[in-house]
Write a structure and sequence with these properties.
single chain, mainly alpha, Arc Repressor Mutant, subunit A, two-stranded parallel ribbon, 5 helices, globular
Length: 101
C-alpha cells in the first residue's frame, strides 16, 4: 500500500466511526496494519493533523481518552453533543471504543 493509499484508508476508517463512539490512534493503526504493513499511532496522528479536517477527527483520541491537543474545546463539545461516554473529563474508552469488526 502506497503512502497515499494509507492516508485514504485512515480517513475512510475514521469516516466509519459512528457518533458517540471513538477509536484511538493506535487502534486505527492496528486495524490497518495487516493490509498496510504499517502500525504507527504517530503516523495516524500526523495524517489526522494534515488531512483529517473533512472527517470526524474528534472521534480519534489517544488511548487514555484524551482529545486532540490544541482543539480540546471543539472536540469535547462535539463529543458531548454526540453523547459520547465521558469519565473524569476524558472519553470513557471502555464504553466508547469502537472497532469495525
Amino acid at each position: 500500500m502506497s503512502p497515499e493509499e494509507y492516508v485514504e484508508e485512515v480517513l475512510a476508517l475514521v469516516e466509519r466511526i459512528p457518533p458517540g463512539r471513538v477509536m484511538s490512534y493506535g487502534a486505527v493503526a492496528d486495524y490497518l496494519a495487516d493490509r498496510s504493513g504499517r502500525s504507527s499511532a504517530r503516523l495516524v496522528g500526523s495524517i489526522m493533523a494534515r488531512y483529517g479536517g473533512p472527517v470526524p477527527w474528534h472521534r480519534v483520541v489517544n488511548n487514555a481518552g484524551r482529545v486532540v491537543p490544541g482543539h480540546e474545546l471543539e472536540a469535547m463539545a462535539r463529543l458531548i453533543g454526540e453523547a459520547t461516554p465521558m469519565r473524569n473529563g476524558r472519553v470513557d474508552m471502555k464504553k466508547a471504543a469502537w472497532s469495525p469488526d
